[in-house]
Amino acid sequence: MNTSTFNSMPTSQNKNPFSGVPVKASSAEPLPPGIYFADFKGVEPFTNERVANKWKWTWEVATGTHKGRSATALTDQSITMQNHAGRLLVGLLGRSLSPGEDTGALWTELQKCVGKRFAVTVATGPKGGKASVQNVSPPPEM
Length: 142
Prior knowledge:
Blueprint: H1 3-7, E1 34-46, E2 54-61, E3 70-76, H2 84-93, H3 103-111, E4 117-125, E5 128-137
Antiparallel strand pairs: 1-2, 1-4, 2-3, 4-5
């Protein structure tokens, strides 16, 4: 429909079609920076047209206005005591990592975290870009 046709419609047909329609967040949009209570869903290998050989860590926000939305992090597929994947593991497992630790045992231990609630901090990473989960910890006792 061209603009001249639209503007020539009778007033009753030219009502604001956006009236009363809220702008909704897309599940593809990252969460705004903040701290959320979220249930851990798991970690899986991730590759797309822009990045390869990453791990995608996923939580589902459990409370508040963003309930049901995903909180995610993409990390390199390596684990050190200081890198992003290592920080997420430390927070999920609730303990420090040891050099040379058996990654098979870490995976088994991590699977016990699936479905459990954590406090996740969503923020922009050190290189900027989209906000993602930067840190995770057990929720505070209430």
